[in-house]
Amino acid sequence: MDLLLIAELALLGLGTGFLAGLLGIGGGMVLVPFLTHILSKQGVEPGLAVKMAIATSMATIVFTSLSSVRAHHQRGAVRWDLVQRLAPGIVLGSLAASLGVFALLKGGFLAVFFALFVGFSAWQMLRNKKPAPSRQMPGTAGQLAAGGTIGFLSGMVGAGGGFISVPFMVWCNVPIHQAVATSAALGFPIALANASGYVLGGMGLAGLPPASLGYVWLPALGVIAACSVLTAPLGARSAHQWPVDRLRRVFALLLVVLASYMLWKGLSA
């Protein structure tokens, strides 16, 4: 890799690491659009570039989530009871997406799906509709189903699940700081299960660039992961210092920008 590419990936890693800690989104919501652009510049076919961006983004979340959740855990904000109930469904849903559906769909469709779903999540957050005071998290079966949905949709778009899990938990009257911290913890099983599926599902595929492991582009994974773990704890500390309404607006506006870019990318593909 040339120095300019390394610098681009390093800056991307520093920025997404901070956002992973701040918003509990694992950084994937930011990484996918930027990695799609970088891979396209490397000569990768547009549809394949989207798929590789999704897979590589998810692989970096394995490292980012560990760094950010440690900082959240030290502040006592992670709801480990929710993690335990959501994680089994998350693993099953993730494997169904990354090992099955992902390989069958075209990159352009995945980009449009990414844009529409993320845009809907942003709209829900900006509405800031207050949940019913009596609403609580569902029981064990309901959380298993919710985890499966989170894992599956995360596997389709290459994100750590915070764009679904944070609004869902807030809707169930989990305080947003706890929702962000718990989402960061959920990012690890999401990322590990999906990344494994992307590697196995992309083995032997034609058109992959050098130094690829399945759909995962190893040079980007190495640089971004090394840099993101440095700034994820800073983002986690900031999450506990910012007021709730500002945190919600930042989350929603970031999703709007990224959804717009990926919609354009998907339609042009």
Short description, anyone?
This protein has 269 residues and is mostly helical.
List keywords for this structure.
mainly alpha, 269 residues, 78% helix, two-stranded antiparallel sheet
Which sheet architecture does the biggest sheet show?
A: 2 strands, antiparallel
Task: State the helicity in percent bands.
Answer: over 70%
Number of helices: 10
Let me know the number of strands: 2
CA(first)-CA(last) distance = 26 Å
Radius of gyration of CA atoms, rounded to a whole number = 17 Å
Strand residue percentage: under 5%
**Total domain count:** 1
Strand order of the largest sheet: 1-2
Low-confidence stretches: none
**By helix and strand content, what is the structural category?**
mainly alpha
- Tell me, rounded to a whole number, the average pLDDT: 82
List the helices and strands in order.
HHHHHHHHEEHH
The shape, in one word, is globular
Oligomer state equals single chain
Layout of helices and strands, plus pairs?
Layout: H1 3-23, H2 28-41, H3 46-74, H4 80-104, H5 107-127, H6 140-157, H7 162-171, H8 176-201, E1 212-213, E2 216-217, H9 218-239, H10 244-268
Antiparallel strand pairs: 1-2
Helix pairs in contact: 1-2, 1-9, 2-3, 3-5, 3-8, 3-9, 4-6, 4-8, 5-10, 7-8
